[in-house]
Amino acid sequence: MNYQRVMGLEIHVELNTASKIFCACKNEVSREPNENICPTCMGYPGVLPRLNEKAVDFGLKAALALDCKVHRNNHMDRKHYFYPDLPKGYQITQAAKPLGIKGKLYLEKADKTIGIQRVHLEEDTGRMLHRGDTTEIDYNRSGVPLIEIVTAPDISNEMELLEFLEELKNLLAYLEISDLKMEEGSLRCDLNISVADQDQKEITPVMEVKNLNSFKGVLKAAFYEGQRLTEALEKKKELQKETRGWDQKKEKTVTLRRKEDSREYQYFIEPEILPLELSHRKIQNTRNRLPELPQKRRNRFKKHYGLPDYDAGILTKNPYVADFFEQAVLVYYAPKRISNWIMTQLLSEMAEGLQGFKDLALKPKNFGKLIALMEEGKIPKKIGEKVLKEILKTGEDPEIILKNRKLGPITDGAEIAEIVKDLLEKHGKAVEDYQQKPDKTLKFFMGKGMEKTEGRLEPQELRRVIKQELLLKNQGKKN
């Protein structure tokens, strides 16, 4: 029997505002536990939360970019549950009136649209650190603003799952609302999964796998849980709705607790934060300021620059890479060549995270000039690679580097002749072989000449001078 997986995601994205969502504490990763906390984010009696306007702006950008219908009038709610990392005993979130609903994200490879049920604002919880038999709680993250993006159960397999995650991460990178560092918890996912038979007559309860902080983890958890639920259907096992965790070492999901029903959270409107009203002007201004998003930019790169799907996909994953490419092409119009050099030489030089290309010492103008020097035959590729390494360190103009570091091509005829004569003197046996093995001898001296000058000689000129000097040497011997 064929079984179908039915999957949806709840994606939590921490917003990179300067302060937390309801207080003035710094919103930054701290090595010192409980450094960035105050009575408000710790939920002390008598404190009054204040909504961070920048967090609302960031949430609105995400909702519009995901083509959501925006609730102009919305409010915050209290979600009640007890957990050690939740200091107030409730979480301030949006339940009844989220910022955005009924959005979508199209997947090109799968040719499928994944529905976005809602995008809402909420505060993050603290972190529990388990050390042997002891659990320590760090509340620095408590109150950090985040958006939760909830998809419809439209994902059917791991390929669609991966494409959706990559596409969403690219889109969020273009919006510049989060650093998206999964290893630090800035982007993490909960997976909702069930399995049904082909006629949808039998379907397992929905299982939620919590706090997956890598794409690999999401895929492995989906595969494992899909197999587990399929086996349960085949063997007619009775299952209960559960919240499960992912054991990374054992690569399996484990039961955490019975899945709560929404009624158990006892939602009600947060009484200490006024309802939020978004004007038509604010919504329209935010929409107008959205950047060109990855899918649109990818298609433009293919059409306008004639790039293949692969190149366009790589270049537009990161907005800084895409910007760098377009600025370099303005200096020297060789889109495919510039794309090749970015993908093979520069991507490995990027620093961790999204700021890598933005912070490179190498500027697009100098990169374009360097490509032009190579394409126009003024310097060979090997020299170009050396110059590139120097620019990445210093940011200097490539022509200045060529001059100051003596990396430029050797064009003086007398200097080339001296180099060749020196090589012939050192390899007398090879000179004697020229009459019997002319091609092999020429190739040998070509290699030695390029090696000696680190590729600074123009190959055709070097070949001409070697051939000329070999003929002179052999004629001298005959005479």
Structure commentary:
This protein is α+β, with helices and mostly antiparallel strands. It folds into three domains: 3-285, no CATH class; 292-404, no CATH class; 413-478, Orthogonal Bundle (Arc Repressor Mutant, subunit A). It has 15 helices and 16 strands. The protein has helices at 53-65, 158-175, 215-234, 280-288, 294-305, 309-315, 319-331, 335-346, 364-375, 381-394, 398-404, 413-426, 428-432, 438-452, 459-478, and strands at residues 3-14, 69-70, 73-74, 77-80, 90-93, 100-107, 112-123, 127-131, 134-138, 145-151, 187-197, 207-212, 242-247, 252-258, 268-269, 276-277. The protein has a nine-stranded mixed sheet. A three-stranded antiparallel sheet has the order 5-4-15, with no helix packed on it. The chain has a two-stranded antiparallel sheet with strand order 3-16. Helix 2 (158-175) runs antiparallel to helix 3 and helix 9 (364-375) packs antiparallel against helix 10. The mean pLDDT is 89.
